[in-house]
Amino acid sequence: MNILLTGHKGFIGSVLYKRLSKFSKVTGIDLVDGEDLLTHVFPNEYDLIIHLAGKSGVRESMNDPGAYWMNNVEASRRLFERYQDTRILYASSSSAYEPDLNPYAASKYVLEELAERYPDTLGMRFHTVYSDTPRKGMFLDKLLNNEIEYVTNHHRDFVHIEDICDAIEILIVKKHVNGIIDIGSGNPIRIRDLVPSAAIRLNTPHERTFTCANLEKMKTLGYKPKYNVENFLTNTNKGVILNIINPNGETR
Predict the structure, then answer these.
(1) Closest CA to 21 of 180, 169, 158
(2) Does residue 90 fall inside a structural domain?
(3) Are 125 and 157 in contact (CB under 8 A)?
(4) How many whole angstroms separate alpha carbon 215 and alpha carbon 234?
(5) The domain that contains 227 carries what CATH number?
(6) Domain range holding 118?
(7) How many domains is the chain partitioned into structurally?
(8) Short-list 19, 22, 27, CA closest to 2
(9) H helix or E strand, kind and range, residue 91
(10) What is the pLDDT of residues 121-171, one digit of tens each?
């Protein structure tokens, strides 16, 4: 399979690129290489496009909403227009459930509405993604580096990056799935419970108070998260959930 992966050097894209390259020809486009989707010329055809490029982050979007519109909506529009006859899996966010809260959420919601105009698109609503090397400045990065200043009463659905990549690999195969689909763990955790000793901040405008992935669709496709964030933070099995039944029916 010949795949175009945008944002292949990003947080999720870099991990996914290594996985997909084992069995497919993968072409990467990333802004860090000077390849801006707003101006990039797309000369080639592909069997599949996985569109992960874009701007993320709630707080930064409050300061520069125009950049989020251009990078998350207009850049995606160019890609969709160029590849109208190609299947496109694109990164959305759980933030799109409440698009009125901040420009980042609004840009992802509009992106989903835009994608509906094209015949073969699937929006992947990622929840709070984490890994051994979390995004700089985000909650888990601060927690692992003992830089937590405060916590909140928010509940978040933390999903490990390997579970995200598992889900994407499933969706590559399940070509009949379109529209929008949630990808998370289905297990919301209250932030303050992860750091009970930290100060609690109650005034947090523009942020969702509760997130939980609806995994009904993904489970019917065979998706089952393998990681648990509480185990991960205590280094229990590095977060891997035990008693997973593998395809051969064996427990590990």
Answers:
(1) 169
(2) yes
(3) no
(4) 25
(5) 3.40.50.720
(6) 2-239
(7) 1
(8) 27
(9) strand 87-93
(10) 999 999 999 999 988 888 999 998 889 999 999 999 999 999 999 999 999
Q: Which of 162, 170, 180 shows the shortest CA–CA distance to 95?
A: 180
**Amino acid letter for position 45:** E
Q: What is the mean pLDDT of the chain?
A: 94
CA distance 191 to 1: 41
DSSP state of 224: -
Q: Does residue 219 fall inside a structural domain?
A: yes
Three-state DSSP class for residue 251: strand
Half-sphere exposure of 131 (CA within 13 A, CB side): 16
For the question of whether the overall pTM of this predicted structure is more than 0.85, the answer is: yes
Residue 244 lies in a domain: no
Q: Is residue 156 part of a domain?
A: yes
Q: What is the DSSP string of 113-168?
A: HHHTTSTTEEEEEE-EEE-SSPPTTSHHHHHHTT----B-S-EE-EEEHHHHHHHH
Query: In this structure, what token pair is assigned to residue 18?
Result: 């290594």
List all residues 6 or more positions away from 121 whose beta carbon is below 8 Å from its beta carbon. 80, 87, 88, 89, 90, 115, 178
Q: Are 125 and 114 in contact (CB under 8 A)?
A: no
Determine the 3-state secondary structure of 79 from DSSP.
Answer: helix
